Amino acid sequence: MVQFPALKRAATRGNLSAAFGSPVKQVSETASSPHTSPAPPSRALRRGSTLAKLARMPTLANLSPVAKRSIGGAKAAAAGAANLTWEHLSDGMKVCDATDEQVVCAKQQEGEMYACAVGPRLPSTGVSELSIRILACDGSGGSMLVGLAEDLGAFPPLGGAWGKVYGLAPWNGNLFGFPDGARRDKARRMDEIRGMPLMRGDMRGTATGATIHMRVDMQQRRLYFKATQSDEWTLARDGDAQAVVLHSQAPAKGWRPFVRCARAGDSFALGALIHTEAAPDAPPRPPAAEPSPRVKFGTLPAEGAASRPAPSASSAEIEALRAELAASKEQNDTLRHMLLAEKERRIKAEDAAATSEKRYEREKRLNKRLTQNAAHDPEAEAHQKRVKDIEAALLREAMLHNEKERASIADGASAAITAARVTQAEAQGNAWKATALRANAARDSFASVSTYAGIFS
Q1: Range 105-117 burial, b when 16+ CB lie within 10 A, else e
Q2: Mean pLDDT, residues 295-311
Q3: Predicted structure pTM score
Q4: Which backbone phi and psi does 132 adopt, to 5 degrees?
Q5: How many CA atoms, within 13 angstroms, populate the side-chain half-sphere of residue 321?
Q6: Which among 120, 141, 403, 451 is least buried, having the fewest CB atoms inside 10 angstroms?
Q7: Comparing C-alpha atoms, which of 95, 92, 94 is closest to residue 110?
């Protein structure tokens, strides 16, 4: 940690003066003449003077709250920690009335627009650690991004623009990067980064009150995150598992703490900054390589100017580069053919699945129809009805035949009885009774009375 002795002494003197109501003098209390230089005090005199001052000083327990906060701020400043405030806000974001360390989204953002806020520019050397706390959200941190923003020198509405940003998305715990912090442009979707996880799980349901810690290592140009104080630092990596490099090219001036959201009522608080300079024996970071000037072959230098030697390369290097280029082209062609074959195989598999689905549906419909026909077949019902009608007709004919047979049998029996009575009447000499019986039999159409009368006579 960087120690600032002069700042510590100045802050301590100023805070003690504010606490005690009188400045702390640093001059010696011994009298001195204006014409003679004061003699240095002895060690005993210095010790006694210091003890007297300490005895007159009030203890920390007797200090007022203002004095305690002043001394605490001085200690934090001497230890390298500094309180940060939000400096630039976009439309829809405002600073809370209570403190400049908190911002809140005052207006719901529509479409691909976001409300953004950035803090002060971070040091361009050493290691900086800071934290941002989510004070209010929908519970999962949807549409939120907490991280760093590139400082292009000026921000809207001061004629500047929002640069690229890297941050942690609370709703899924992964790294995201965007070329513009305040809005998403469809034409620049290819420049967006969907990186690797920065925490275990995500903050869905626990985002409100969560604190996101960041570590910015400008010595190595690396960015680290952790979701809780007990977690280990996680290096920010892109979708290819490559570390994100914090390059700053003109007109960029550096990096700033950054938050963005789209929901009205979302609120953030910016924590203190702890900065550590690089160790004196640490190897310096190599300077960024300047782009080499492009050489235009076939042009002559201006008259009077020294001719610049053309870059030369050995034939072996050229052949190696050509072989590497040919191999990469061949690999790309192979991958392209594999991709096309995989797409064709997938299309065939989808067609086969669709055909199987259609066949299954057709068989299902046929089975359903067969089941319905077996239960409600009109032809079968008509056939069954005809069979029943025939059976009923046959039964009626049989019954009619039986009735006819019974009638004929009854007629024969009545004729036989009448004939027997006629014979009996004649045998008794009762002629008129026999005549009456024959007349009744003739009236009832007993055709066989004469036959039966012959039998009984």
Answers
A1: beeebeeeebbbb
A2: 49
A3: 0.47
A4: -130, 130
A5: 6
A6: 403
A7: 92
